[in-house]
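Lecture 7 notes: from sequence to structure.

We start with a single chain of 362 residues. Read the sequence below before looking at the structure.
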Amino acid sequence: MTTRRQARSRARVLASRSLLGLTLLVATLGCANLQEMMGGSAPEEAIAAADGLASSGDLPGAYAAYQELATTHPESVRVATGLAYMQMLSGELEAADATLAAVEAGASEEELGQLHLRRALVALRLQDLDRIREHGIASNLPEGRLLAAEVLLVDLEREEGTAILRELSGEPGAVGRTATQYVEMLSGEASLADLAEVTALWSLGVRESACEASEDLVKQLPPDYEQKDTMLLLWAGRAVTSGLPQVAASLLDELNFPPEGQEWRLQATKAMISLANGDVEAGMERFDALSALAETGELPADGMADALATACMLAPNPAVRSRLVAGMESAAAARCLMEAGDIDGARTLAPPGILKTYLENN
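Now the structure, written as tokens:
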């Protein structure tokens, strides 16, 4: 079982110091735009102008505008959350946390909960488990408490974490579903309960360690456990995308039959393993065959597109990356080409929105 010390020692800081992580951050924060993040009072026109700069892709301009607003309105929660957002996008995570902390004293009860949730998300990017737990609990919001419960599981405080998860299982939406899944796993036999803790490790971003710990645990699930093949395929996919193709292959070796309708996902995972191991010919042969089936509607087009964008990040060179995502319009495909240095290709594939605007302006 992975210990807290191991989790900390193997944790990788997920924050990028580039503004190119924008799309991922937007998804993580669950916000459509800056205005949705903010509360409190400050000049509406000035904030709207800063928001407009961000929406147009002028992130340095937006950053400067919020810095100026913070100087003249240091007490404004609305301004502070806008500035903290810009700081997060720039990879200045400690600065973002300090900005949010500075306005806590004057915040309303509702604002204070949101500030603690934002600080928990910043801590998640920093991989600071103590602060995730502290601010998650202090937020008193379902999303924050779920993060705190996951930290408790990783800290091997299973009883306390399970208590929070049981309370959250009645929540609507993704939080309630996730909490229910955790409770079911924790209520099962030993290897499944231990796997719940490893799942929490994965959710908190300590992915390499989680995948290493999952290998034996998933194999140890009872043969009559109905979801065993599903778990084997799930963790194999996670392992290969976490830089552990050998773990992924080991898990697939234990697979009896792919879950119904998931044969294509098994083949896609095998293709990713080939690419990760440097066997481009074998990997591309599988992906070409799967892509042909997706074009005829025999495979889910959206799922196949996601698999190709994921595989793109594992490809050994820019030429293979470009081949994998040719003709795809998606932020994930654009980011892959961007990391490979193909900025022109990334501009072509980026869908309309802030990422495309950013690429066009740079």
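The CA atoms of residues 113 and 180 lie 23 Å apart. Keep this in mind for problem set 3.
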